[in-house]
Amino acid sequence: MSAVAAPAAVMVPAPRPPAEDGGAVSVLPGLYVPEARQWLSTTSGRVAPEGYSWMQAVHWVAGSGLYEPRRHRSHGPRSFGPTTVFIAQLLAELSPCRPGIEYLMRRSGLSERAVEYHLQMLRETGLLVWELRGTRVSGEQAQASVYVRMLPPEFDVALGIRTAGEGTARRMTGIAEAGRELMARLAKKASRRVRRPRSKTSSKAPSKAARRDAEGAPVTVVSGGSRCTPMGGSSSSVSTAGTTYSPPENKLASGVSKSPTPKKSSSRAGGRRKLNVVGRRYQLAKELTQELDWLRGCSVPRIAWVARGIADAGWTVTDVRGWLHFRGEAARVRRGSGLLATLLKDAEKILDTPAKRADAVEQWRAAQEAARRERIQQVRARQERFEGDWQPPTSRAVQQQVDAAFAAVREAASGRTPTAGGQEPAAGGEEAPQLHGGLAGLDEDEIARARAEARQHLALGDTEPIEVAIAAMGPEAAEQLYGPKLLRRAKQLATGFRSTHMTLGYR
Q: Of 244, 240, 203, whose CA–CA distance to 220 is shortest?
């Protein structure tokens, strides 16, 4: 059983059965959701209204003991413990819930395999389902999966929660009296932040911190619970007479001795020291170096100095992301701290209220969602193109053979006899130049107008008219329409677009 949710381990029995059953109390079965039901369309749970309610269900699962991972596999974590709760806490902060494996590895300090194990445990308990599974296209960056936070039906049964509606859109309408106390305890646990789990080597720290006396012999430190005063006794076998507290004379000016027990500092909140101005700057700088890719490897003290203005104004890393979306980011970064100083100039003066910062964050999240949907459409279009019909060959020689075959088919369909050059012999035995079948209706003025328009586009670096003509009519008809000189110029520009030694633009 996890130490994170130990008080929540009290199971609330199911509703009392009828009298003919002998009054026996039914117990909830074990938690396990197979992979086929780990999707939004096949799950039996309901969507969590927000991250706070979802964390209540996470703490209930951690303390219930209904889920045992080793029942379903012989490897991986042994229990739904503090690390899984910490991963769930990171997921509760995301909207939409689209975490990347690298992001969770960076925030939790775990390996890739460990992160995948904990995500699998959240899915097997019904707390997490797939809305869209991540894609892995060869040659491109892998796309993260999109999850939906769910409340398993066992959670509703255990706490006596009444719901209304159908499917995953069910909502809570009430709770049984027996489940109110447990719900209150889960609410307290969900409101507290779970700290990042320590490594296994940190458990050996107390043994290394053992004190030694003047002769070098190890001495066990007396805990605060066994500490005693000269007037009282102690059950400890170690004598405390040598550690009696004697206050200095300047502390006895009023004639009253103060208690030797140190008081809790008022600057501590939740058992942790409250950060001052410099601490908030360093905290924001560290989060920025973890969140922004182009700040990786930058010095945290330097970033703290650059971001001192927004840190003093109470900005968070999410507010900074919203401002950078509003301000704009660079594609190539040579010096991250210098770029950040430029982008954050007068940021705290422009977004001087929390409402303005919240609006910028909403715009950034909307842009992220739109970009995600666009990438999904691109992947689907690419898959449809790869799985579609025949595609033109990439070899130039094969393209010429295919064009010749298509030309022969068109000439045979029109009733003409193709020749070696693809043209019919003129009267008198001489070959007269003829336009392509699609250009026969064009006069010289129209052809001259088309060439003039293409020449203007080429002057601006635009080869689209000629490329469209080549794709629609073929290379021979396009050459007849625009001439070999313009086609040669278009090919040169198209080759220059793919070269790193040539840059096109406007003056």
A: 240
Burial 328-341 (b: 16+ CB within 10 A, else e): eeeeeeeebbebbe
Question: Residue 209 corresponds to which tokens in the numbers above?
Answer: 């911190």
Q: Environment class of residue 57 by beta-carbon count within 10 Å: exposed (0-12), middle (13-18) or buried (19+)? A: buried
Q: Which of 153, 95, 143 is nearest to 358 (CA)?
A: 95
Q: Which amino acid is at 257?
A: S
Per-residue pLDDT of 15-44, as tens digits, reads 444 434 333 334 566 789 999 999 999 999
147: phi then psi, degrees, rounded to nearest 5: -110, 160
Asked whether the whole model's pTM tops 0.85, one would answer no
168-218 pLDDT, tens per residue? 999 999 999 989 999 999 999 999 888 887 765 544 444 444 444 434 444
The one-letter code for the residue type at 76 is: G
How far apart CA 425 and CA 409 sit, in angstroms, is 18
- The secondary structure of residue 6, as a DSSP letter, is G
Contacts of 201 (CB under 8 A, 6+ apart): none
Q: Which two tokens stand for residue 107?
A: 């925030």
Query: For residue 281, what are the contacts with CB-CB under 8 A and spacing of at least 6?
Result: 304, 305, 307, 308, 311, 312
- Find tokens 């039996």 and name the residue: 44
Q: How far apart are CA 354 and CA 356, in angstroms?
A: 5
C-alpha distance from residue 60 to each of 5, 40, 337, 350 (Å): 7, 22, 44, 44
Q: Beta-strand (E) ranges in 77-193?
A: 128-132, 146-151, 161-164, 171-175
What residue ranges in 48-124 does DSSP mark as E strands? none
Closest CA to 357 of 318, 327, 328: 318
Count of Cβ atoms closer than 10 Å to residue 116 Cβ: 14
Q: What is the predicted pLDDT for the residue at 186?
A: 93
Q: Where are the domains of the chain?
A: 6-196, 275-382, 392-413+440-507
The neighbour count for residue 207, using CB atoms within 10 Å, is 8
